[in-house]
Amino acid sequence: MLTVKNLKKSFGGLQALRGVNVTLPDQAILGIIGMNGSGKTTLLNCINGIYIPDEGDIVLDGARLDGHPIHKVAGMGVGRTFQVPRVFQHLTLLDNMDVAQVASKAERDERYALSEYWLDKVALMRLRHNYAEELSGGQQKLLELARIMAAKPKVILLDEPFAGVNPELAQMLIGIIRDIPTQHGCAVILVSHDLTSIYQLSHHIIVMNEGAILTEGDAATVKSDPAVIEAYLGA
Ligand SMILES: Nc1ncnc2c1ncn2[C@@H]1O[C@H](COP(=O)(O)OP(=O)(O)OP(=O)(O)O)[C@@H](O)[C@H]1O
Ligand SMILES: [Mg+2]
Predict the structure, then answer these.
(1) Cα(103) to centroid of ligand 1, in Å?
(2) Per CATH, the architecture of 2-86+155-233 is what?
(3) Could you tell me if 205 and 217 are in contact, meaning their C-beta atoms sit under 8 angstroms apart?
(4) I want to staple 49 with a disulfide (CB 3.0 to 4.6 A). Which of 13, 60, 73, 74 is the partner?
(5) pLDDT confidence of residue 234
(6) How much is the pLDDT for 190?
(7) Tens digit of pLDDT for each residue in 169-186?
(8) Is the CB of 42 under 6 A from ligand 1?
């Protein structure tokens, strides 16, 4: 269980997060939507240790995450993908996958099997000996997801996983994300502008606006909320 309490983060005079509260139960998928610049990525950056929040606390299974550097937070079970994917360009896909398992005590064969399992899931097996730099942007996003899953995280933070991924792969990705909580015991925070995918996948949805939560609830609640309709479509 991940909880975020009263999280605040400013950049100079700009309040990017104005006291955000989030509860993510085990095996849940939490969707986060909101206009450009509403603070979604900043929230993820605070959770995984890229930013130190000004106020508030972030707790995963009873342990404080805030204040720890990014690698420590990763070691505590938080995986993260980025709006612009960050993979090791000059390593092969298999080596990218192996790096993710650096903390694993598993034997080489076992690590290799896990790498292949995830590369197969994201349809990149045939490219396993290629360098990551040879992949398209969409494929790099898939590799990034495979890589963070190989570290067996407790929670993953996905920032725009569908952006730049073609519709067929996006459909495959939806299926993979949907199964992650039940099949891999991992909770998911999903930030996306793709409302259809968010509505399909999320058990709970948060709508952000100017660094605060505008409204939250299940898909039906959020879809019919006048404040959301106004924020997205204009009055
Ligand atoms: N490192 C930074 N320095 C200064 N301002 C920042 C920094 N990171 C984010 N901001 C500002 O904080 C606000 C929230 O940005 P954030 O990236 O969290 O938005 P977002 O909801 O992810 O938007 P998008 O949908 O476009 O990805 C924006 O006004 C942004 O310019
Ligand atoms: Mg963002």
Answers:
(1) 32
(2) 3-Layer(aba) Sandwich (3.40)
(3) yes
(4) 73
(5) 65
(6) 98
(7) 899 999 999 999 999 999
(8) yes
- Domain residue spans of the chain: 2-86+155-233
Q: Model-level pTM greater than 0.85?
A: yes
Sign of CA dihedral 137, 204, 27, 154: positive
Given a cut of 60, is residue 235 above it in pLDDT? no
pLDDT value of residue 104: 84
Using the atom order of ligand 1, give the atom closest to the CA of residue 51: 1
Question: What separation in Å is there between the alpha carbon of 151 and the centre of ligand 2?
Answer: 24
- Per the DSSP assignment, residues forming a β-bridge with 63 are 60
Residue with CA closest to ligand 1 atom 20: 37
- On the question of pLDDT at 109 being above 60, the answer is yes
Written as six digits, the tokens of 207 are 């709508």
pLDDT in tens, 8-61: 999 999 999 999 999 999 999 999 999 999 999 999 999 999 999 999 999 999
Return the CA Rg of the chain.
Answer: 18
**Is the shortest distance between the CB of 13 and ligand 1 below 6 Å?**
no
Say how many Å lie between the CA of residue 160 and the centre of ligand 2. 8
Cα-based distances in Å from 177 to 104, 156, 186, 189: 23, 10, 10, 10
Strand order in 63-64's β-sheet? Answer: 14-24, 2-11, 55-60, 63-64
User: Is 40 near ligand 1, meaning CB less than 6 Å away?
Assistant: yes
Closest ligand (CA of 193)? 1
37 lines ligand 1 (CB under 6 A): yes
Q: Is the pLDDT of residue 103 over 80?
A: yes
